[in-house]
């Protein structure tokens, strides 16, 4: 037989064991509460939901080989998306390009071609003559009020088809 006394939990041992278990349980509870709140507000990885509205395109003037088109893009989803390119079968020959206009001086603007444009989650992108636009090769015969079909290609949302109305520069907020 053994001369040792049987092991008995002491108050000190119970307190130490309880404190050791309480730390991971508390951290897990805090993490679960944060994730539950994040999910409750609809941010738990919902995909982007892109809508394209208010398409308009400037009526070309004179012998200009290019004009510009503008769209309002709204992303009501929980993840950002990216506009990669714009295509159209209803325009002149040549590629459509995304362009950003920057004011470099008092009345001087410069334009640069961009490869894509981000549309943050829960936000919108409003294209404009002094910001982002689509450079469009001119097709003869366009008149104010004509509708031109475009397809905007997004990284996550895929292709979104829309129409742009031909307007004179300065009309309809352009």
Structural descriptors:
1 helix; 174 residues; single chain; alpha+beta; 10 strands; 10-stranded mixed sheet
List the topology elements.
Blueprint (H helix, E strand, L loop, with lengths): L10 H30 L9 E9 L7 E10 L5 E7 L9 E7 L5 E6 L2 E3 L3 E4 L5 E6 L9 E8 L3 E10 L7
Parallel strand pairs: 1-10
Antiparallel strand pairs: 1-2, 2-7, 2-8, 3-6, 3-9, 4-5, 4-8, 9-10
Descriptive report:
The structure is a single chain. The chain contains one helix and ten strands, in the order H-E-E-E-E-E-E-E-E-E-E. By secondary structure, the chain is of the alpha+beta class. Strands 1, 2, 3, 4, 5, 6, 7, 8, 9 and 10 form a ten-stranded mixed beta sheet that branches. It is rod-shaped. The mean pLDDT is about 85.
Largest sheet geometry: 10 strands, mixed
Strand and helix order: HEEEEEEEEEE
Gyration radius, to the nearest Å?
A: 29 Å
Shape: rod-shaped
Number of DSSP strand runs? 10
Termini gap: 98 Å
Q: Residue-averaged pLDDT, rounded? A: 84
Total number of helical segments? 1
Proportion in helices: 10-25%
What percent of residues are in strands? 35-45%
Structural class of the helices, strands and pairings?
alpha+beta
